[in-house]
Specification:
Helices cover 39% and strands 19% of the residues. It is an alpha/beta fold. A seven-stranded mixed sheet has the order 3-2-1-4-5-7-6, with helices on one face. Helix 2 runs parallel beside helix 3. The structure holds S-adenosylmethionine. The site of S-adenosylmethionine has 23 residues, from helix 3 and strand 2.
């Protein structure tokens, strides 16, 4: 009897959390027009690390880092640089902490906040996988904050008012994550 009530209450709590998460995601994507949590394909993350070189003194930010797969792929190839994820959603934040639990925080860490409020002036590289209108909103922040020479690497989405230094086509098994736009600031 006790266990029947226990599992009934537990499934109620899990369903409620699921509904809250779905409502929050709909509110953020449909009303606030923010990019939802759709991770880059793993193929994309692996190939990113074959095309981009991160020096040992590099500081790499992923704005809206999700579970951290882009940063992790780079860390696995260039382990001496510093990797910083910024994420405002709870679920991907928890996934990031779980997937990267064995990597020392001095190398790879995450901050739970709105990336528009993050000071990214120490970056040498910035990764994004967002939406075109969010890229355009970020442009003035990048122009103000980034040091000359900083590279911004955007998966799939380009700025409408800045020319890329390079476009890298990837060979992935999905329709997403097929192109990297590389910009120099
Ligand atoms: C399309 S996902 C990309 C995740 C990861 N970069 C990847 O490539 O796998 C976009 C992520 O950005 C986060 N995000 C969107 N707007 C944000 C904001 N203003 N501040 C922090 N995170 C944000 C979302 O919660 C989501 O996890």
């Amino acid at each position: 009897m006790f266990w029947s009530y226990f599992f009934l209450i537990l499934s109620g709590v899990i369903s409620l959390l699921g509904i809250i998460y779905i409502l929050q995601t709909l509110w953020r994507t449909l009303l606030k027009k923010e990019a939802p949590y759709i991770p880059s394909p793993l193929d994309t993350a692996q190939q990113l690390a074959q095309h981009i070189i991160i020096p040992a003194k590099g500081v790499v930010y992923d704005l809206g880092c999700g579970d951290g797969r882009l940063l992790r792929a780079l860390y696995n190839t260039f382990p001496h640089a510093t990797y910083r994820g910024i994420e405002h959603e709870l679920a991907p934040y928890v996934l990031f902490r779980w997937h990267n639990r064995n990597i020392p925080k001095e190398y790879l860490s995450i901050k739970r906040e709105d990336f528009f409020k993050t000071n990214i002036s120490s970056a040498t590289h910035v990764l994004t996988y967002l939406f075109p209108h969010i890229m355009d909103k970020l442009l003035s922040k990048f122009e103000k904050e980034l040091k000359p020479g900083t590279l911004v690497i955007s998966v799939d989405f380009a700025f409408s008012k800045k020319q890329p230094k390079e476009i890298i086509n990837l060979e992935t098994h999905t329709t997403r994550g097929k192109r990297l736009y590389v910009y120099e600031f």
